[in-house]
Design goal:
Number of helices: 48
Shape: globular
Distance between the termini: 75 Å
Helix content: 25-40%
Strand content: 15-25%
C-alpha cells in the first residue's frame, strides 16, 4: 500500500512538473517598422483626408481650436481624437478608423512627410514654412516672403500632398509641423488667409521636430511555427544563454484554451476559480500531447473539427475554430473521438458540389466573400482588404441615406458603372474614306476561306488565321504633302503588297478652304492628283496606284515636305496626258472630298492625335484611334498588329457564341458594338473623373455670405435640393440624366451652349436640365442670367423650353411669345430674385465646381465635364454623344435597378435619387469582381453570426474553409475582428475535406491583428505581439513570418535559433524582434517599339541628396524589377553608363514623360504594394546596340557601372580579376556555424582577396552582428544581398525549398553586373584547395560548372535515382550534378538569358508538387539540354555518402552530405571526416568568446567607447 502511495505521489509530481514546464514556456515575436513612432493625430488626419479632403482641413482647424495638453496619456489622446473624428464619421466608419489605427495604416504617409522635412536644412523651431528659397518660423514674415517667392521656382509637391483650396497661385508655401500644437496653428492661420486671397498655394505636411525614440509597432501579418522534420539532426549544440527576453506576463497567460475563455469563466463563476485554474492547467498540459496518430485516426479530422465547430454556440464557434486551426498539432488528438453526424457529411458534400460549380472552389481552397467580392486568402493582405471594405462602407451608407432599400444594395453594388477608358470608336464607313482594297471582292484574296468559322480552327502560335472578310479596317488620316506622312503611306503600301488582312483606307486631310487651289497648296495638289489617278487607272488596282503615286511624289521631292512643283513634275512624268493646269486649277473636276474630310476629322474630335508640323495625324483601327505614342514609324505597324490580335480574339469569341455568322455584314457588326459612338470627344470620353459630393446636410439660406461659409459638401447638398429643371413633357417615372449647365448667358458662348442643351432636352425624354449662372462679373446687370433663373422658377414644360430657346437664341423680346399669365409669373419671379442670387450660384460654381467666372461647364449626374476652354465647341453632336455614352456606361443599368426597387415618388425626387446614386456609385475607385453566392444548405455545416444592428446597412461576409487548413488559421481571427469592427452578417461555411492520409496541418499559427489600438494600464500605447503558449517542448519548430508581398522583414534581436526552436532546451521561452526593413517598389519595364523587356537594363532609385540609393536589373521574365525602398519621395532613373547611354525613359504608368527626362518621381506612402509600369525607348542611332553585347569597354560600360544591386556590406568594387567572389546562404545557427568554418577554409587556402556574398533574408542577428568583426579579424570583404521572391513566380511554402530556390533562380539579378564570376559554396563545405583554380577554370562556353555526383561508393547504388526511370532517359548519358559547389560565369549567364530560362522552366514544373524534389539540383539538371552544364573534375567535391574512401585524398572540398543509411548528425560527421574542422571550430569559438568579453568590458562603467562599425547600406533612406 505504501509503495502505491509513493508511486502515485511521484506520478503527480511528475505531472505537476510537466504542467509547470509547459505553462512557463512560450514563443513571442513582434514586428516594428524601421522608422520612428508617428503620432496618432497625424494618422487620423490622413484617414479623414482619404474620406474627404475637406475633413482634413476641418480637422486641422479643430485641433487648433482644441489643442492637446502635453500631459495627456496616449489613451486619453486617442479617445479625444476619436471624439473629434466622430464629427465627420459615422459610428460604422469610426470602427474602421479604430482598425486603421491598430494597423498603423497611415504611418507610412506620416513618415513620408517626416522624410521630406528631414531633407531640408531645418531651422530651430517646432514648425516652419518653406516659401521659395526660404525656410521661415515667424507668421509675420510670410506675406512679404510670399511676394518674393512668386519669382522663384516652387518646391516640388506630390499627389499625396494636402492643398488648401486648390487653384492657381503665384507661389507655393509648405507648412511643416505637428498638428495640435501652437507653433503650427499660428502659421496655419496666416497661411489660410494668404491662400484665400489667392496669393499662395498652401500645402501642409505633418512632422515632429524630435520623433519619439521608439519605432512603430506593426500588425496585419501572420507568424507560423512549423514542426520541422527530425530525420537529420540540424541543431547546433551551442547553448544559448536565456536573458529573460520576451513577454514575462505570458508565462501564465493561457486565457483561451481549446475554446474555453477562462477569464470570462472566472468572471461568471468566481466561486469556482480554483477548480477552473486546475482544469485550465490540465488542458494546457494535455494539449501538449503530440503522440503520432494512426492512419485511421487521421481520416476524419476535418469532418470532426467541422462537427465540433458546428455544434458550438455561434458566438463561440469562431473562437473554437481559431483555437483548433492555430494549435492543430496539439489539438488533433482531442478530435479523434468526436462523432460525425451523417447529416453534416451530406450537407458539406452537397454544398461543396454547389460552390465547385459556381465558384470553382476545391476542398483545399479558402475564400472570403465580402458583398460578393472574392478575396483569396493565399494572396490577399489585410491592407488591400481594408481598402475595399472602407470604400464599400461609404457607398452602402450613402445608398442608405438616399432612402434606397437595403434589399436593393446587392444589385446596385454589383453594377459596373465604369466605362472602358480606351477603345471608343466611330463609324469608319464614311464617304470621306478612300478605300485602297476590298478583301471580300478583290481577286488577290480569292484563295482565302470565306467562312467566319475558320477562326475557330487551331493554328500554330503566332500564326494568323485569314478569312475573306473585311474585318480589320485601318484608316490613315493625314495631310499627304507632309514628310511625316510618308512613313504611314509606305506602311499602307507594304501591308497591301504583303497581303496582310487589313482593309486599308485613306482620308486626305487638307485645307477645306474652297478658295485655295492645287496650284497654291501642295496638300490640295496631292489630293486632286490622287483623285485624278483614281479615275484614270482601271479598277480594282486604281486605289493602290493612287496610293503609290503619293509615295512617288515624296520620292521625287527634296526630302522635306512636298511642294506644288513636286506634284506637277511627278504627275507630268507618270501621266503625260494629264493637263496639270486642269487637274490642279481653280475649276478642277478633281477637287472633291475636302469638305467630307474636314467633317470626318471633326467627328474624330479633339484629343488623341499626334501633330506633325501643325497637321493632325490619326490612325484608326476599326474606327478606334491608336494611342498617340503608337503613331510613329517605329511603332505604328506593331500597334496595328496588336489591335488586330485583340480584334481576332473578339471575333473568335463572337463566332463561337454564334453572335457573328457568315450571313452578317462584319462592318455592320463592328459598328453595332457599344464602344462605337456617334463621334469622339475626349472631353466626354476621357476626362478625369471629378464628382460632386452630395453627402452633406442641405441648408436653407439666401444669404451669399452665409452660403459661402458652408463646406463644399453642404453646398452641394443645398444646391441639389433647390435647383429647378427644364424637361420635355412626358409621362415618365424618372429622368435618368440630369444636366447642370454652368455658364454666363451674357456671353455668346454661354448662350450657344444653353441653346444646344435645351435642344437636347427638347428631343429627349431622358434628360432634365438645370442652370447654374456663372457670370464673369456678378455685380453687372446680368439680364440674361437673371431671366433664365426666373424662368426656371416660374415656367414649365413646352413654354419654358420655348422661352429658353428664345432667350439663348438672341431674340430681342423673348417674353413676347408668353401668355399674359406666364409673363406675369415670370415678372414676379424676376422681381423676387434677391440681390445675392447670382452671387450665391457663382460662389458654388467657383468654389465647388472650380469653374472660373465666365467659363462654361456641365455636370452630368454629378460628374464634371469641363470647364470648357474659351472657343471650344460643344454642339448638338457632342450632346448626343454625351447622352449615348452616359446611358451605355451606367445610366441605363442604374435606371432599371432603381425603378424596380423604389416606391412611387415624384419624378424629380426619383431623378434626384438617380443623380445622387450615380455620383456615389461612380465614386468607387477600386474594382473587384463580384460573385453570386449559390443557395447553400445551412442547417448543419454553416455558422451564422448576425449583424449587431439589423436596421443599418450590413456587410455580407461569407467565409469558406476547411476548419483545419491554412486558410482557417487566417480566417478565424480575421472574421472575429471584422465582426467586431463592421456591422456584418457573417456566414462561416465549413468545407471539410472528406478523407486525410496525413496530418492536414503541421504548424502553429498566429494572425497579429487587433480591432483597435491596445494600451497598458498606465495608458501607454502598446503594439501587438504574436504569442504562442502551451506549445509542446519536444518538437523542433521553425519560425516563419507571413507578410504582404511587398514587405521585406528580418530578425534584428534574438539570441535563439529561430530555425530550430526546441522549448525543452530553453529556460523560459523564446522571444524575437523583427523589423520591416523595406517596402518594395516593383515594376515591369518594356521597350516602346518592340514591347519586349530590355534585358540587362539597370534601374536606380534615389533621392536628391543620394541619386543612387539602390539599383537593380530588369529581368526578361515579364520585364520585372524590384527596388528596396521605404516611405519617402524617390526618383526612378536609368543607371548612368550604358543603360542611360542607349535608352530614354518614355512613360511611367501610362503617363508620358518629358522628352529626355532624366528621372521620374515615385512616392512610397503606403503599406500596400506599389507596382509601376515603365516604358523605355532606344535613343536615335542606338537601335542596333545590345546592352549585354561585348562591344563596350567593360570598365566604363554596363559591366562596370553598377556598384551594388542589393544589400549592405564591406563596400568596394567587386569586379576586379584579382578577387574571389564566394556566394553562400544559411538558415539556423547550425548552418551559420558551418558557414563560418567554410569561410575560414576558403581563406586559409588562398592568397587572393576574397569577397563573400551572403543572402541576407534568413541570416540570424547573431551572425550579422559577428560578420563585420570577422571581416576585420580575417581580412575579407563581404556583402549582404537580398531579393524578395516575386509574387508572379510560383511560391514555395516550405522554408527549406525557398532557400533552395534562392540558390539557383535569381543569380542574374542578385549580384552587381561587375561581378563576372561567382562561386557558390554550400555552408557545410570544408574547403581544402585554392578556389582561384575553380574561378579560372575554362567553362568552355557553358554559363556554369557543377560537379557530378560520385558513383564510386557502390553500397549507395540503390539511392542513385538518376540512374533509373525519368532521369536516366532525360539525361541521355549525361551525368547528374550536385549543387553543393558550382561556379557561374555571370556574364555568359546573362547573355544567354539563363536566369529567365530557369525561372520559366521552374514556373511550369513547380505547379506539380511531385516535381523538383531537390529544387536546387533538379532544375539545372532538368535544363541541361537548354542551359549547358560544364562538368567539373570529380576532385572538386568529395562526399562520403557517394564517394569511396580512396578518393578522399584527392578532395579539394568535402561536403557534409546527409547519409540516408546512417542519418548521422552533421556535427558528428564533420569531426569524424575532417580533422581540421575541429581546429577551425575551436578558433571561431575562441574568437566569439573574445568578442563577448570585449563587449562586456565595453559596456562596464568607465570602459572606452568602441569605434562604430561602418556599414554600407543601399537599402533605403528616411
Amino acid at each position: 500500500m505504501i509503495w502505491t502511495l509513493v508511486w502515485s505521489c511521484a506520478v503527480l509530481c511528475a505531472c505537476a512538473k510537466a504542467e509547470q514546464n509547459i505553462r512557463n514556456k512560450y514563443v513571442t515575436t513582434n514586428l516594428d517598422a524601421k522608422w520612428k513612432q508617428t503620432p496618432l493625430i497625424h494618422e487620423v488626419s490622413e484617414y479623414l483626408s482619404e474620406e474627404n479632403s475637406e475633413y482634413f482641413w476641418d480637422f486641422v482647424d479643430e485641433t487648433c481650436s482644441n489643442q492637446f495638453d502635453a500631459a495627456l496619456s496616449d489613451r486619453q489622446r486617442y479617445e479625444r481624437l476619436l471624439t473629434l473624428a466622430g464629427r465627420y464619421l459615422s459610428e460604422a466608419q469610426l470602427g474602421l478608423l479604430r482598425l486603421s489605427l491598430s494597423l498603423r495604416r497611415h504611418s507610412p504617409r506620416a513618415a513620408l512627410s517626416q522624410q521630406l522635412a528631414s531633407q531640408l536644412e531645418r531651422p530651430d523651431c517646432a514648425a516652419f514654412v518653406q516659401l521659395g528659397e526660404r525656410l521661415l518660423c515667424g507668421a509675420g514674415e510670410l506675406a512679404e516672403a510670399a511676394a518674393a517667392a512668386a519669382s522663384q521656382p516652387p518646391p516640388e509637391t506630390y499627389p499625396v500632398d494636402h492643398h488648401y483650396k486648390e487653384g492657381p497661385a503665384p507661389a507655393t508655401a509648405i507648412l511643416y509641423g505637428e498638428l495640435g500644437t501652437e507653433p503650427l496653428c499660428r502659421l496655419h492661420r496666416e497661411l489660410k488667409t494668404l491662400a484665400e486671397a489667392k496669393r499662395i498655394d498652401y500645402v501642409l505636411r505633418q512632422c515632429v521636430k524630435e520623433p519619439a525614440a521608439s519605432k512603430v509597432r506593426l500588425s496585419g501579418y501572420g507568424v507560423e511555427l512549423a514542426i520541422k522534420s527530425t530525420e537529420y539532426k540540424a541543431q547546433d549544440d551551442t547553448k544559448v544563454k536565456d536573458e529573460g527576453s520576451g513577454d514575462a506576463e505570458l508565462q501564465d497567460q493561457h486565457d483561451d484554451v481549446e475554446g474555453f475563455v477562462f477569464s470570462r469563466l472566472r468572471e461568471l463563476h468566481p466561486e469556482l476559480s480554483a477548480n477552473l485554474s486546475a482544469f485550465q492547467r490540465h488542458l494546457v498540459a494535455s494539449s501538449a500531447d503530440m503522440a503520432p496518430l494512426k492512419v485511421w485516426q487521421l481520416q476524419d479530422l476535418s469532418l470532426q473539427a467541422a462537427q465540433r465547430v458546428a455544434q458550438a454556440p455561434p458566438e463561440e464557434a469562431l473562437r473554437l475554430m481559431t483555437g483548433l486551426a492555430q494549435n492543430f498539432p496539439s489539438m488533433a488528438r482531442t478530435l479523434i473521438k468526436t462523432k460525425v453526424e451523417k447529416a453534416l457529411k451530406t450537407e458539406i458534400k452537397n454544398n461543396h458540389n454547389l460552390y465547385t460549380k459556381s465558384l470553382n472552389l476545391e476542398y483545399a481552397d479558402s475564400a472570403l466573400f465580402a458583398n460578393g467580392m472574392f478575396f483569396d486568402m493565399e494572396t490577399t493582405d489585410i491592407f488591400t482588404l481594408f481598402e475595399h471594405l472602407r470604400e464599400e462602407q461609404k457607398v452602402m451608407e450613402g445608398l442608405f441615406h438616399l432612402g434606397i432599400p437595403k434589399s436593393a444594395f446587392d444589385d446596385l453594388l454589383r453594377l459596373d458603372l465604369t466605362a472602358a477608358s480606351e477603345g471608343f470608336a466611330v463609324d469608319f464607313r464614311d464617304t470621306a474614306v478612300n478605300w485602297i482594297n476590298d478583301i471580300e471582292r478583290d481577286r488577290q484574296y480569292a484563295k482565302w476561306p470565306s467562312h467566319v468559322t475558320e477562326l475557330l480552327r487551331p493554328t500554330y502560335p503566332g500564326m494568323l488565321r485569314t478569312v475573306r472578310k473585311n474585318m480589320y479596317h485601318l484608316v490613315l488620316v493625314l495631310d499627304p504633302s507632309r514628310r511625316s506622312s510618308l512613313d504611314l503611306l509606305t506602311l499602307a503600301q507594304s501591308l497591301f503588297t504583303n497581303q496582310m488582312p487589313f482593309t486599308l483606307g485613306l482620308v486626305l486631310a487638307v485645307t477645306p478652304d474652297p478658295d485655295v487651289t492645287g496650284l497654291q497648296d501642295a496638300g490640295v495638289a496631292m489630293a486632286e492628283a490622287f483623285n485624278y489617278v483614281l479615275r484614270e487607272e482601271k479598277a480594282p488596282r486604281a486605289p493602290f496606284k493612287a496610293l503609290s503615286f503619293l509615295v512617288d511624289v515624296h520620292a521625287a521631292s527634296s526630302g522635306g515636305d512636298v511642294s506644288v512643283e513636286d506634284v506637277k513634275r511627278t504627275l507630268g512624268k507618270l501621266y503625260p496626258a494629264a493637263d496639270v493646269a486642269d487637274v490642279l486649277g481653280e475649276m478642277s473636276d478633281y477637287d472633291a472630298g475636302r469638305t467630307l474630310a474636314r467633317d470626318y476629322v471633326t467627328r474624330l474630335g479633339a484629343g488623341r492625335r499626334r501633330r506633325y508640323g501643325g497637321v493632325c495625324v490619326r490612325v484608326l483601327f476599326n474606327g478606334a484611334p491608336l494611342p498617340v505614342r503608337s503613331i510613329s514609324a517605329d511603332t505604328v505597324e506593331e500597334a496595328a498588329l496588336q489591335e488586330l490580335m485583340k480584334a481576332l480574339h473578339q471575333f473568335t469569341k463572337a463566332v463561337y457564341r454564334q453572335e457573328l455568322t457568315d450571313g452578317d455584314d462584319v462592318a455592320e457588326w463592328i459598328v453595332s458594338q457599344p464602344n462605337v459612338m456617334p463621334r469622339l470627344n475626349d472631353r466626354i470620353l476621357k476626362s478625369e473623373k471629378r464628382l460632386v459630393d452630395f453627402s452633406g446636410e442641405p441648408r436653407s439660406t439666401e444669404d451669399a455670405a452665409e452660403f459661402s461659409r458652408l463646406t463644399p459638401r453642404d453646398m452641394s447638398a443645398s444646391v441639389g435640393g433647390r435647383l429647378k429643371y427644364v424637361s420635355r413633357p412626358a409621362s415618365v417615372r424618372m429622368r435618368p440624366l440630369t444636366y447642370w449647365l454652368a455658364a454666363d448667358l451674357e456671353s455668346a458662348e454661354g448662350r450657344q451652349l444653353m441653346q444646344e442643351a435645351v435642344l437636347q432636352v427638347k428631343g429627349s425624354r431622358e434628360v432634365r436640365l438645370a442652370f447654374l449662372p456663372n457670370p464673369h462679373s456678378p455685380s453687372a446687370e446680368n439680364s440674361h442670367n437673371r431671366r433664365a433663373l426666373a424662368a426656371l422658377q416660374a415656367l414649365q414644360g413646352e413654354t419654358l423650353i420655348k422661352y429658353l430657346l428664345a432667350l439663348s437664341g438672341d431674340k430681342k423680346e423673348p417674353e413676347a411669345a408668353l401668355s399674359a399669365e406666364d409673363a406675369s409669373a415670370l415678372s414676379s419671379a424676376l422681381a423676387s430674385l434677391g440681390p445675392d442670387a447670382l452671387n450665391l450660384w457663382a460662389t458654388y460654381v467657383r468654389r465647388v465646381l472650380h469653374v472660373p467666372g465666365g467659363r462654361r461647364a456641365l455636370v452630368v449626374n454629378g460628374q464634371m465635364v469641363g470647364p470648357l476652354e474659351p472657343g471650344e465647341a460643344f454642339g448638338e453632336d457632342d450632346f448626343a454623344l454625351l447622352e449615348k455614352y452616359t446611358s451605355n456606361s451606367y445610366a441605363g443599368q442604374l435606371e432599371t435597378k432603381l425603378l424596380r426597387v423604389m416606391d412611387e415618388m415624384a419624378v424629380d425626387d426619383l431623378s434626384d435619387v438617380m443623380m445622387k446614386a450615380s455620383a456615389l456609385l461612380n465614386s468607387r475607385t477600386l474594382k473587384k469582381e463580384r460573385w453570386t453566392m449559390p443557395s447553400l444548405e445551412d442547417k448543419h455545416s454553416v455558422v451564422r453570426l448576425p449583424p449587431a444592428d439589423r436596421s443599418l446597412p450590413a456587410f455580407e461576409l461569407v467565409a469558406v474553409c476547411d476548419p483545419v487548413s491554412r486558410g482557417a488559421q487566417q480566417l478565424g481571427p480575421l472574421l472575429a475582428v471584422l465582426h467586431q469592427v463592421l456591422n456584418a452578417d457573417v456566414r462561416l461555411v465549413l468545407n471539410a475535406q472528406e478523407k486525410h492520409s496525413d496530418m492536414p496541418l503541421k504548424s502553429y499559427y498566429r494572425l497579429v491583428l487587433e480591432p483597435a489600438p491596445q494600451f497598458s494600464a498606465a495608458g501607454e500605447l502598446q503594439g501587438p505581439v504574436a504569442r504562442f503558449a502551451g506549445v509542446p517542448g519536444e518538437p523542433i519548430l521553425t519560425q516563419h513570418y507571413h507578410v504582404p508581398d511587398n514587405w521585406m522583414v528580418e530578425a534584428v534581436v534574438s539570441p535563439y535559433d529561430l530555425d530550430n526552436i526546441k522549448l525543452d532546451d530553453v529556460e523560459h521561452g523564446v522571444h524575437s524582434d523583427f523589423e520591416l526593413e523595406h517596402l518594395l517598389l516593383e515594376g515591369h519595364c518594356f521597350e516602346q517599339s518592340s514591347g519586349s523587356p530590355p534585358r540587362g537594363l539597370q534601374v536606380t532609385l534615389g533621392t536628391a541628396r543620394r541619386p543612387v540609393v539602390v539599383d537593380t536589373i530588369v529581368m526578361a521574365n515579364l520585364g520585372y524589377f524590384q527596388l528596396k525602398a521605404s516611405p519617402g519621395a524617390w526618383t526612378l532613373r536609368l543607371r548612368q553608363g550604358r543603360s542611360a547611354d542607349i535608352y530614354n525613359l518614355i512613360s511611367l504608368d501610362g503617363q508620358e514623360l518629358p522628352e529626355r527626362a532624366s528621372g521620374v518621381s515615385v512616392v512610397i506612402s503606403s503599406f500596400r504594394s506599389h507596382v509601376v509600369k515603365l516604358r523605355v525607348a532606344k535613343k536615335p542611332g542606338m537601335e542596333q546596340l545590345d546592352l549585354l553585347s561585348d562591344e563596350t569597354d567593360e570598365s566604363s560600360g554596363i559591366w562596370g557601372s553598377i556598384k551594388s544591386t542589393f544589400g549592405a556590406g564591406g563596400g568596394g568594387s567587386s569586379g576586379g580579376e584579382d578577387r574571389l567572389n564566394i556566394f553562400s546562404l544559411a538558415s539556423g545557427h547550425l548552418y551559420e556555424r558551418l558557414m563560418r568554418i567554410m569561410m575560414l577554409g576558403v581563406l586559409r587556402h588562398t592568397k587572393t582577396p576574397v569577397k563573400f556574398w551572403f543572402l541576407k533574408n534568413y541570416l540570424s542577428p547573431t551572425f550579422k552582428d559577428l560578420l563585420p568583426l570577422m571581416a576585420q579579424r580575417y581580412g575579407f570583404e563581404f556583402e549582404l544581398v537580398q531579393y524578395k521572391w516575386p509574387r508572379w513566380l510560383h511560391q514555395q511554402t516550405e522554408k527549406q525549398r525557398i532557400i533552395w530556390g534562392y540558390k539557383i533562380l535569381f543569380l542574374d539579378v542578385l549580384f552587381p553586373l561587375d561581378v563576372k564570376k561567382i562561386i557558390f559554396v554550400d555552408a557545410d563545405q570544408i574547403v581544402r584547395a585554392d578556389l582561384k583554380e575553380l574561378r579560372d577554370l575554362d567553362l568552355e562556353g557553358a554559363p556554369y560548372g557543377y560537379t557530378p555526383f560520385c558513383d564510386s561508393r557502390k553500397e549507395m547504388d540503390g539511392f542513385r535515382f538518376w540512374n533509373q526511370g525519368y532521369w536516366r532517359s532525360h539525361l541521355q548519358g549525361r551525368r547528374y550534378h550536385i549543387s553543393a559547389l558550382y561556379v557561374v560565369d555571370l556574364k555568359k549567364f546573362r547573355q544567354i538569358a539563363a536566369g529567365d530560362r530557369l525561372r520559366g522552366q521552374y514556373q511550369g514544373l513547380s505547379q506539380d508538387p511531385n516535381s523538383l524534389s531537390n529544387l536546387d539540383q533538379d532544375l539545372p539538371n532538368n535544363m541541361i539540354h537548354q542551359v549547358r552544364i560544364k562538368s567539373l573534375p570529380q576532385e572538386w567535391l568529395w562526399c562520403e555518402t557517394w564517394c569511396d574512401d580512396a578518393s578522399k585524398k584527392h578532395a579539394k572540398t568535402i561536403d557534409l552530405c546527409n547519409n540516408p543509411l546512417t542519418k548521422e548528425a552533421k556535427l558528428k560527421a564533420a569531426v569524424r571526416i575532417a580533422p581540421e574542422w575541429s581546429d577551425y571550430d575551436n578558433e571561431i569559438r575562441e574568437f566569439q568568446a573574445s568578442v563577448k568579453v570585449g563587449r562586456a568590458s565595453a559596456s562596464s562603467p568607465g570602459a572606452p567607447t568602441p569605434a562604430p562599425t561602418v556599414e554600407h547600406d543601399h537599402g533605403g533612406e528616411l
